[in-house]
Here is the input.
Amino acid sequence: MFKEGDFVLLIDRKQRKYIIELKKDTFSSFHFGKVQHNDIIGKNPSFIESSCGEKLFVLKLTTKDFVLYKLKRKSQIIYPKDVGQILVLGDIFNAKSILECGCGSGALTIWLLNAKKDETKLVSIDCREDMVELAKKNVEMYFKKPIEEIKNFVLETKKLEEVDFEENSFDRIILDVTEPWLYLDKVNKILCCYGIFICWLPTVLQVFNLIDEVEKKYPEN
Here is the structure.
C-alpha cells in the first residue's frame, strides 16, 4: 500500500515512465493532465485516471528504476547488468566487510547497501568531494533518512593510496577507477587472504593492463 513519501512509477499507454514522490494534498502535472497524490496514497498498485481522462498504471518504484531514472549523476554509473555480476561474483551477500573505491554518484553503493547483511560494514570512498556529496544525497533520497542513520556504512572523501586501513581489513574490495593496477600493493595489504577483489573496467585494454600487472607482480599465483 502506498504511503506519503513513497516514490511511485507511473506508466502511460505509450509505456512512458514518470516518477513522483507522494505528498498529501498535492498533485503532479503532465502533458496528459494532473494526478492527485491523495488518489494514490493508501492504495495498492493499480490504474489511476488523470484530470484529462488518461489512464496510468501506478507501481512502487524499484531500485532499478530509481537508479536509472531518478538518481542524479555527474559521471557514468554502473548499470544493473554489471551490478548483477558484481553482487554474484563478489558474493556480497556473505561479505563481512566491503571497501568500495570510486563511489561516483552512488549507484553501486545503493545496490551494495541493499545486498549486504545488516552487520556487514561497507566503506565507500572517492577522491572527489563533489562526487561524495552527490552520492550522499542520492543514498539519503533512496533510503529516506540521514546517512548517519544507516548502520555500518561509512562514506568519505579519500584517496585509496592515502587511507590507513589495517592489514586484512576487508574481505571484499571493489575498485571503480581508471587504473586499478596502480593500487595492487595497497589491495594486497588490506584484503584478507580469503577475500575477493573486483574491478569494474569499461574497456578491454584496461582489462588486459590489469591482468598483465597482476601476473607481473604475483607470478607465483
In short: DSSP finds six helices and eleven strands in the chain. Residues 83 and 108 are 7 Å apart (CA to CA). The helical segments are 63-70, 80-89, 107-115, 129-143, 184-190, 204-217. The two ends are 53 Å apart (CA to CA).
